[in-house]
Amino acid sequence: MTLPLLEVCVADAESLAAAIAGGADRIELCSALELGGLTPSPGLMHLAAKAPVPVYAMLRPRSGDFVFDAADIDLMLADIDAVRLHGLKGVVMGASLPDGALNASLLRKLLDRAQGLGSTLHRAFDLVPDFAAAVETAVDLGIERILTSGGAVTAPAGLARLRRIHEAARDRISIMPGSGLTPENVGHMLRAIPFTEVHSSCSSPQPSLNEKAMTLGLAAKMHRRTDSKTVAAFKRVLGRS
Question: Is the entire prediction scored with pTM above 0.90?
């Protein structure tokens, strides 16, 4: 039996090193995890290209919703070119229509630009009004996998919907649960549903130490950093240590 893969989401060089040291099978590279993840910098892409595991870069030019205008689209297309230039293996994308449904035409445009790169549909999927229809759209587009919490705040809370999404996929596309997964609860998820890959930041909150920076609004009180011991604990649960 194939053991589940662990994808670790990282947003800085320290977290990238920790994910690799802990044994991550794949990296999702982004910035601003506290905003749900934005496009990583070219410098971070350059560093991540040296990783011994596949790295997929987030394509999200701004925070907020996933309804993108022409300027946003131009940025995402240019960022796909940067992902390719820096030698990363894939992209993580999502785009919505105003009602929350997937914007299939925009996703097709992005996928055409990303031809030859791997593809993950991110949690814009969790906003759709019809999960089964969105799965069919993703399958038709040829996307590799869907990252989803089942439309809940955390994947464990969305377990019932994740089961229906997994059944709708019928092994035509990978369903990768993410949000709120820990070494303590991921085993229960996998006993309930035979996922082939799971997603986590494997992070812990770290306090900002500069009081003046926080007072001036230049730093948040807390930020999250990936912990190599948490990554390794995940791998032990997944049987891949």
Answer: yes
Query: 119 has which bridge partners?
Result: 91
Can you say how many angstroms the Cα of residue 223 is from the centroid of all Cα atoms in its chain?
A: 18
pLDDT at residue number 152: 97
Q: What is the pLDDT of residues 53-75, one digit of tens each?
A: 999 999 999 999 999 999 999 99
List the structure tokens of 113. Answer: 């630009």
Identify the helix (H) or strand (E) that includes residue 44: helix 42-48
Of 129, 150, 145, 238, nearest to 186 by C-alpha is 238
CB-based burial, 49-77: b 16+ in 10 Å, e otherwise: bebebbbbbbbbbeeeebebeeebeebbe
- Cα separation, 38 vs 36, whole angstroms: 7
Q: How far apart, in whole angstroms, are the C-alpha atoms of residue 75 and residue 38?
A: 12
pLDDT higher than threshold 60 for residue 2 = yes
